[in-house]
Design a protein that fits this description.
- The structure is a single chain.
- The chain is of the alpha+beta class and 159 residues long.
- The protein is 27% helix and 29% strand.
- It has 4 helices and 10 strands, in the order βαβββαβββαββαβ.
- The strands form 3 sheets. Strands 1, 2, 3, 4, 5 and 10 form a 6-stranded antiparallel β-sheet that branches. The chain has a two-stranded antiparallel ribbon with strand order 6-7.
- The longest helix is centred in the middle third of the chain and has 14 residues.
- The chain is globular and about 40 Å long.
- 36% of the residues are buried.
- It binds adenosine monophosphate.
Length: 159
Amino acid sequence: MTIAYIGLGSNLTEPQSQVERALGELDRLPHSRLIARSSLYRSAPVGYAAQPAFVNAVAALDTALAPQELLHQLQALEAAHQRARTFPNAPRTLDLDLLLFGDERIADAALVVPHPRMHERAFVLEPRTEIAPAAEIPGRGRAQALLEGCRGQKVERIP
Ligand code: AMP
């Protein structure tokens, strides 16, 4: 079994419900169990600003799936949430990123782990730090220290 971290995001069609539902669905993936989840966070959109704020969370999954199988399962969940791919950084009902897979480093055509942008995104680092305060991102250092470099990004915990 390996502990994988998944980043969740939504800014369309009741984003909080989309993320809460997806957390339940992650727990029901084959050969997998949800072992921790962060609070929900609200963040300003990155890249394309003219869209609603995002709701984000991070989950820790104990899984016996191979990383590529897990990515397929995540993509199937996105599709089940009627995720449409229109243009990069477009609004979406559900975005699931495979952030970390144990301490593995993977770089193939369909999967890059650690996720190549997670270390510079407060909406990932903040919830990740909530559930794993001392954890490192392989090759990048401690999430807490990386967060210092994201001070300009607006992220707030949803009470
Ligand atoms: P997006 O549209 O941002 O959800 O990106 C999805 C694309 O990124 C798919 O083609 C995936 O194969 C690819 N991808 C590469 N690495 C990852 C990762 N760590 N997590 C999720 N998708 C990934």
